[in-house]
Amino acid sequence: MPKAQFPLLKMTKLVVATGNPGKLREMQTYLVDLGWELQLKPPELDIEETGETFSANACLKASEVAKATGEWAIADDSGLQVDALGGAPGIYSARYGKTDAQRIERLLRELGNEPNRGAQFVCVVAISRPDGAIAIFETGICRGEILHSPCGTGGFGYDPVFYLPEQQLTFAEMTVEMKRRYSHRGKAFEALLPHLGKLTF
Ligand code: IMP
Questions:
Q1: What count of other Cβ atoms lies within 10 Å of the Cβ of residue 86?
Q2: What tens digit of pLDDT does each residue of 90-121 get?
Q3: pTM
Q4: Could you tell me the distance, in angstroms and rounded to a whole number, from the CA of residue 123 to the centre of ligand 1?
Q5: Given 77, 83, 100, 159, the catalytic residue
Q6: Residue 6: its pLDDT value, please?
Q7: Measured in angstroms, how far is the CA atom of residue 94 from the centroid of ligand 1?
Q8: Domain spans of the chain?
Q9: β-pairing, 37-40 with 162-164?
Q10: Would you give the DSSP letter of residue 18?
Q11: Which CATH architecture has domain 13-196?
């Protein structure tokens, strides 16, 4: 995978605006080679996701964390849209249950024996300047199917029930590299990375 080109003076701090450890691991992997000094958002800084779209929430989180810390910030808003559930849980994916196991259990219960198992993961990743202005945002989508029961132990969230027919694997059965290649978040970062080096400070 080609690395973004950075002029030498562009080493700068980027606050990662997430408290989700699974997301954080993936975002750190995608950003590690880029010459940014990554810093976690202060844990007490909790941004309420009041937006009605993934883009609105990603931009809101990046912008608010940037303004609160006075640094550049990056945020991702993502979720699962299930065709037979009219796109639910969508932007409410994190709020569908208290734990990953409960969220998966609710999803499988609501889907029941529905034969249409089509679904997609969506990820919008946004970068904000220290003053809260959004510098850039990109979207990634990955289509797949919802299994009848969990399979695999890797990843996080709904990964054990999200199956890619072409790879014959769930996200939870993939290596980190495979999930990067096929996932919504991997695709959003793939679109974002070439633009990072062109940001002006
Ligand atoms: P939010 O972006 O903080 O609103 O949370 C998105 C929620 O969607 C996460 O808490 C997960 O439940 C789910 N989600 C997002 N991306 C993934 C993924 O790559 N695998 C599994 N679940 C995900």
A1: 8
A2: 999 999 999 999 999 999 999 999 999 999 99
A3: 0.92
A4: 9
A5: 77
A6: 45
A7: 6
A8: 13-196
A9: unpaired
A10: -
A11: Alpha-Beta Complex (3.90)
